[in-house]
Design brief:
This protein is α+β, with helices and mostly antiparallel strands. It folds into 2 domains: 29-154, no CATH class; 160-374. 25% of the residues lie in helices and 42% in strands. The chain has helices at residues 2-15, 32-69, 75-110, 160-163; strands at residues 120-124, 133-138, 141-146, 149-154, 167-182, 197-208, 215-228, 234-239, 242-247, 249-250, 253-254, 259-276, 291-312, 318-324, 332-342, 345-352, 363-374. The strands form 4 sheets. The protein has an 8-stranded antiparallel barrel. Strands 1-2-3-4 form a 4-stranded antiparallel β-sheet, with helices on one face. A two-stranded antiparallel ribbon has the order 8-9. α2 runs antiparallel to α3. It is elongated, with a radius of gyration of 29 Å.
Length: 375
Amino acid sequence: MKTIKLVTLLLTICILPFAGLAQDSTTVKLDKKAKMQLEKLEQKLLQIEEEEKSKLKKIISELNQQQEQDSIYSKADFEAIKMENAKRTAENIANRQEIVKNQIDFLKRNGYLSDEAALSIRDEEDDDSENAKTIIDKEAKSITITPTGIEYSWLDEDDEEYRTKTQKDFYFAFGFNNAVASPGGLNDSPFEFAGSRFFELGWLFSTPITKSNLMRLDYGFAFQFNGLKPEDDLIFYEDGEQTILDSYVVDGEEINFDKNKFRQDNLIFPVHLHFNTKRSKKGDYFIRDGFNFGLGGFVGFNLNNITKLKFDAPNGDREKLKFKDDYNTNNFLYGLSAYAGFGDSTLYLTYSLNPIFKDNPVELKNVQLGFRFAF
């Protein structure tokens, strides 16, 4: 008899993982409290989707505004950024909903919320059932269920555990780009100030160096797009081993451009020593909450060089041209960079130590000033 019972038990355990393939045969009858918890959990699934989509809409709206004002980057560049954010939103929804779905499955199968896997659940009930609540914790995540709603939270700057770990953030930066001439200076730059801009998009990691968290190491990688607009309707030409600015002539006439942009696409690896001035109640320092700044630099590689032109030709045709060339640029990049600001929004400054073009009598070195935002 014991053997039969043991075999029956083992068969039951083996079949249990596949029970979901049947018509929800493991579902039990839920009491009033369990039904209320189930309803709130199902509402939370919709709420998570709405919250993440709302964040995505805001980002897309800001990118659309930037696209209308910016003529350096192509429509395809902006679409790629939008797709990356959409993918990130879908992953956020899936990750956040998975926690809630696991609890829904457990609740339907057992009729109550209890411990499962790495989840630790504690029930706190007062004599008044209306004050009953269930708190579900898993590492940095928590769900609090009450008769009036569900609260969802993550560890943040106020949690010491959060501050002592390596953090990963998506970031982007944009602003003015220009070139410092040597000999000479920024005043001798042959590029328009307002028409020359940059855009940077990448991933950022932050690891504590000191026990107090006063100093952290920020590092990562980013795609950088540096745009320059030459003055006086000049464009770049390769003249042997040098790169010069000269007029563009069609049918014997010098062209006046409606659009004249030179853009470099780079892959860079920024590294900064990050400092914060705001202390927590524990005595250590926050990561970005409060005033913070970073000092460091970058190395990288030039991936692509493009000249984009728009103009009316002497024969009356509307011309739109794009040239890709080496332009005798330096393929290896390195320079200094710094940022300072409050929270995740900082003023951002970079200066390239290597000239844009090789072997030119007048060296031109990129300098950028703008804003950087981390998420």
